């Protein structure tokens, strides 16, 4: 392709919620490089503006947009998606990636702490899907939710995230059934340990721990943001037009067993630190 990508999204409208940092920013930039018009959204307006600058650098010919909202605030979501509708008219690809996390044992996790993660990860995901629904291009729109291995692997210090992300993946499966008749596809990507991301650095805060995690991955490396972006480019493309309702680990095989081993070690460390 002339845009240098294996995929061509020229004239496609892509919305990446949570797309101003980490994995989701990598995904947003990848779609821009593939020719798409990309809108990003998050709570922090400075991060939004910085992300739009990066999108313009990746694809100066695209129409890129930044909006600021908290996925827990449905009124703010309504305004944000109205702005997206004004600029784009419709959405070809929606990436829903808002997430919150912190390590805490269930015994010491407050009700508000548990609720805050449920509100961001699960209720926020539902509200994003509801707001985007009328704008989705039919019959070809693609939705990708960015999930987490906690959705199907029990992990110490992660009861709140495990519960929330399991719900996110069931939303994916349920809406694949409900919206498939309209030609709308929805899938989840489950990233493994991705280097240089805030979430990974929070759960494995030292170089030694991150190397131990890498050693627990069958491919013997931690992933890169581009690994997740590549999967998203594929799942949203016509090449994946018969794929929906899938929860796809992109983790170097980590979820086959290494994740449980690594998280047990991190849980032991958390216990020593009194988390």
UniProtKB/TrEMBL annotation:
Domain of life, per lineage: Bacteria
The keyword Kinase appears for this protein: no
Pfam family, one: adh_short_C2
Keyword set, alphabetical order: NADP, Oxidoreductase
InterPro entries: DECR2-like, NAD(P)-bd_dom_sf, SDR_fam
Name under which the protein is recorded: Short-chain dehydrogenase
Lineage: Bacteria, Pseudomonadati, Pseudomonadota, Gammaproteobacteria, Alteromonadales
């Amino acid at each position: 392709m002339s845009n240098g990508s294996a995929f061509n999204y020229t004239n496609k409208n892509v919305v990446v919620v949570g797309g101003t940092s980490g994995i989701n920013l990598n995904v947003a930039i990848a779609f821009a490089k593939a020719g798409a018009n990309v809108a990003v959204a998050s709570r922090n307006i400075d991060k939004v503006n910085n992300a739009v600058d990066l999108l313009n650098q990746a694809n100066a010919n695209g129409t890129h947009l930044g909006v600021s909202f908290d996925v827990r605030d449905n009124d703010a979501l309504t305004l944000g998606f109205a702005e997206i509708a004004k600029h784009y008219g419709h959405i070809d690809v929606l990436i829903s990636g808002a997430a919150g996390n912190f390590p805490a044992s269930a015994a010491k996790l407050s009700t508000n702490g548990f609720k805050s993660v449920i509100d961001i990860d699960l209720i926020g995901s539902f509200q994003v899907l509801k707001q985007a629904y009328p704008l989705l291009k039919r019959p070809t729109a693609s939705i990708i939710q960015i999930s987490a291995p906690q959705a199907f692997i029990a992990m110490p210090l992660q009861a709140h995230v495990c519960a929330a992300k399991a719900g996110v993946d069931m939303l994916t499966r349920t809406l694949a059934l409900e919206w498939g008749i309209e030609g709308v596809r929805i899938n989840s990507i489950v990233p493994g340990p991705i280097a240089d991301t805030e979430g990974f650095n929070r759960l494995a805060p030292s170089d030694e721990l991150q190397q131990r995690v890498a050693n627990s991955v069958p491919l013997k490396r931690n992933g890169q943001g581009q690994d997740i972006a590549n999967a998203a480019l594929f799942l949203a493309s016509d090449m994946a037009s018969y794929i929906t309702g899938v929860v796809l680990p992109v983790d170097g095989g980590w979820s086959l067993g290494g994740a449980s081993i690594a998280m047990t070690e991190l849980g032991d460390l958390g216990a020593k630190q009194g988390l």
